[in-house]
Amino acid sequence: MAKYEFNDDGVVVIIGSGAGGGTLAHELTRRGIRVVLLEAGKRESLASFSQVPNEAFAQLSWLDPRTSSGDWAPAKTNPGLPAWLAKTVGGTTTHWGAVTPRIQEWETRARTTYGEVKGTSLIDWPIEYQELLRYYALAEERMCVTRRAGNPGLPASNNFKVMHAGATKAGYQRVHSGYVAINSRVQDGRGFCIQQGFCVQGCKMGAKWSTLYTEIPRAEATGRLDLRIQSMATRIEHGSGGRVNAVVYRDAHGAEQRQKARAVCVAGNALETPRLLLLSESGKYPRGLANSSGQVGRNYCHHVLNFTVATFEKPVYMWRGTSQAGLVEDEAVNDPKRGFAGGYFIELVNFDLGSLPLAALPYGWGRDYASFMDAYRNMSAIMIVGEDMPRADNRITLSTTAKDAHGLPVAHVHVDEHANDVAMREHGQRQCRRMMEGAGARRVLHSEGSPFATHNLGTARMCADPRDGVTNGWGQTHDIRNLFISDGSVFSSAAAANPTLTIVALALRQAEHLSREMTARNI
Amino acid sequence: MSSTDFAGRRDFLKVTGVITGCLAAGSPLALLAPTRAWALDLTAFTSEQGATLLSAARTILPHDGLDDAAYAAVVRSADADAVRDAAALNLYSDGIASLGAGFATWNEEQRVAALKKIEPSAFFQQFRVKALSVLYSTPFAYAHFGYEGEAFSKGGYLTRGFNDLRWLPEVPAGDAGPLPGAAS
Which of A12, A344, B6, B122 lies 20 to 30 Å from A507 when distance is taken between CA atoms? Predict the structure, then answer.
């Protein structure tokens, strides 16, 4: 593994080692570029992943406080953790369910497709869909996505059998065991899925793709990656010309360090990325870096999410088997007759006993609640993941009340739900109920409102017109040529698809652009 | 958590209260524990406060076959919070007092009525979430609900029933994949 000097100004500094940052680190180092990768968390391994669910959550999650406001449910049910992300090498790819559908062409033209929707800040993506498709194919091959790139699907679990029966009864046609970045056979030097059902606790088989044990060790093997763990970036600095030239961070001992840089790529997840840009305000950039448009932190999207849990007469044992290997694609269309713009996927989901009440049913008590829990053996669960509308005032700002361990203001998350989000959720709940009842459910419960967000998007978005967002179609900030955004913050709109596949595809594409620009000495 | 875990704290912590119980003879855990009797020492709460909290936890999440020892784990966690944090101790002490003396001896209808009265309070909401987060993660709950937990150490559920459901039609081959090893 490489070790670079703090004053080496030839390195690219990447902040965050998840889907975007980890992939970018591999792509740059294999092209001969020297990279310092800063990761705020520790480095776990297949051996160290805890298999005690609440310990695993604490092991992988970003638990610094948040503050929140607005009318969405997490501001009430989880005010200190309204939106989840990871703090560990590999980022959210350690914890994710590995669901990898593609964004569809019409979704990348959101403003054009949906027209003017009052109270939104919709724009189109500034990239050609045909080009994105090329990177989707590369990403799917690299991540060994099932039912893509020649990979078999995963076998049907009990939980998926319920989903499939219900979907068939509801008249759905496009129902299958999902596009998931989980090995359905031995490949890529990793084993196949043994149906543990512990995807989100960290896959001890390594069957689930994570940058922790794919991209990052491969980047290290080039001899050009200097990975610094427990290194929390606190500020990006710039020179008199305005270009960024160093990243200040706290190391594992809490000491402040300053790494010089030829270029900086921020991949801290759509909460931490805008926070860092805002924390880096200076005399030249009084509103924070790359924020001449005032758009940094705005247009925060988090998907329309909702869980449906049902009990049946006979056992399902939903915990046995891959957590999310089941997908209904039929509602992922734009059909205004349903009463809302945009589409949603219906996805299989399971819950370990300890997480079920907290994640899916964090309300209620007494005999009624307990009797539902008593049927845990006979439960099945599905969820919707749909496109939420971007709104200028749904945004990440610096908290005025809470600070982190370094004395820096934490991220404040404000969300007021758009009526379109509510209409989609209600439609999704009705459809999920139809499915569950079609499969023979006795009782059906939905999570109230939105659970805490896990798909954080749009807070430094790509845009053709620099006034609409923060970066161009390469994730390169409009204001500062050598400052890039490399995570879900760049999504121009949320689309319905779970975001990781698109983050990886965009990182592959950004790496080509960045290395070309470096070769041409434009950076 | 076992009866010995509870007892072990007695040696080095200042004890202010204790709650005790006896695992039901039919409890799966009774077969594993060295003795069916258990005792939980409390550091922040008195015995009566502990008994009230245990009874409140059972009223909030009433699972008749689930042993008191599982609910005692909720009380233990609340006690630990109260030891660490004076504000939590005050919240709990005031909340317990607001339920009324003798709460633990009342019938379920009376206990539900008392909890309903304080449902919006910070104490109730905090303790309800505490009960949700602790109770279902105990080994007692795993046994009671039939949850089998992590499976990596046993080779996953691939050969242990992940697809043994027979009361619904099988999924057509095109909509799912083969068992690994079946295809090459």
Answer: A344
**Nearest residue in chain B measured CA to CA from A359:** B133
- How far from each other are the two terminal CA atoms of chain B, in whole angstroms? 45
Q: Is A70 left (phi over 0), alpha (psi -120 to 50) or beta?
A: left
pLDDT tens digits for range A150-207: 999 999 999 999 999 999 999 999 999 999 999 999 999 999 999 999 999 999 999 9
Measured between CA atoms, the residue of chain A closest to residue B154 is A196
Q: Which residues of chain B have pLDDT under 70?
A: 1-13, 25-35, 182-184
Interface test with B, best of A158, A199, A447 (most B CBs within 10 A): A158
Q: Reduce the DSSP state of residue A79 to 3 states and report it.
A: coil
Per-residue pLDDT, A7? 98
Pairing of strands A244-250, A232-238: antiparallel
- This complex has an ipTM of 0.93
CA–CA min distance A312, chain B (Å) = 11
Phi, psi of A427 (to 5 degrees): -65, -45
**Closest Cβ–Cβ partner in B132, B141, B151 for A197:** B151
β-bridge pairing A304-311 and A443-446? antiparallel
> Which letter does DSSP use for residue A148 in this model?
S
Q: Got the DSSP string for A262-278?
A: SEEEE-SHHHHHHHHHH
CA–CA dist B170, B181 (Å, integer): 20
Nearest to B136 by CA among A373, A27, A505, A400: A373
A176 phi/psi in degrees, rounded to 5: -160, 180
Give per-residue pLDDT as tens, A213-261. 999 999 999 999 999 999 999 999 999 999 999 999 999 999 999 999 9
The CATH fold of domain A12-519: FAD/NAD(P)-binding domain (3.50.50)
- Higher-confidence residue: B34 or A16? A16
Neighbours of A461 (CB within 10 A): 30
